[in-house]
Amino acid sequence: MLTLAKIINFGGGVKPGLSVAGSTLLVGFLGLTVSPSLAASIGVNFYGGSFTIPASGSPGIVSAINWNNIAGTSGTNITLNDDTATATTAQLTFTAPEVYNSFRVINTPNAATNTLYRSGLILNNGVAISLSGIPYSSYDLYVFASADTTATNQLSISNGTTTFYYASAGQNNSGATALLQTTSTTSGSPTTGPAQYQLFSGLTGSSVTLTAGGGIPVTISNNLFGFQIVNTAQPVPESSMIMGLVFFGGGLFAVSRRKNRN
User: Fold this and answer.
1) Stretch 165-189: mean pLDDT
2) Coil/strand/helix, residue 181
3) DSSP 3-state assignment of 33?
4) How many helices (H) does the chain have, and how many strands (E)?
5) CA-CA distances (angstroms) from residue 35 to 84, 86, 236?
6) pTM for the predicted model, two decimal places
7) Which is it for strands 41-47 and 68-71: parallel, antiparallel or unpaired?
């Protein structure tokens, strides 16, 4: 039998292949690769009238465009779009005492991230952020919350199961060149530093509520700039790629049969 591995040789070495209908289907043929779909995601940027994320902007940790720009201090059952700008079943309900538009400028290499940290909800004296109808069977939730103050009071953000504790290290967010992940889950020992974010990983429920804790009176402190929900369910190959491989494999099988008859 003549297999594709015998038909084509790249530089003296055969690329790994898949067996299809008695032929070796060379995935690397002519640079052809089967790559899974990029993880779907839903991003939200809270703002007060300025500092919206453009559709092409990709702020935060996981690369994704088409973030939802949400204005004001409250909203009920707001339908959220995903990174393809398609409406999802996810809905956002939130209330906050105030939304602020002039947080200090951070200086990461990502302009969209810098914009994300310029405006957001001020969480002092109570906040409620609830998500329902999340369309992913498993997901990670990135929350972009940080203290933009020189005060070192401990602050927190919780999803009801995990609580992260953070504080400034005596400096505000100004000039931060990278985001700092909050890792402390121990009250009294917060992660300290500017421009922090939190990762709630391995979530599975279709709804989640975020609650802020702590506060510094008359100080812009426990701020939530936005969040991103990232699908972590097993990705699948693109359907168009699968069909291309099926036709490609069928053609190779025909070549193999003709060769065997000669």
Assistant:
1) 93
2) strand
3) coil
4) 3, 17
5) 18, 22, 8
6) 0.76
7) parallel
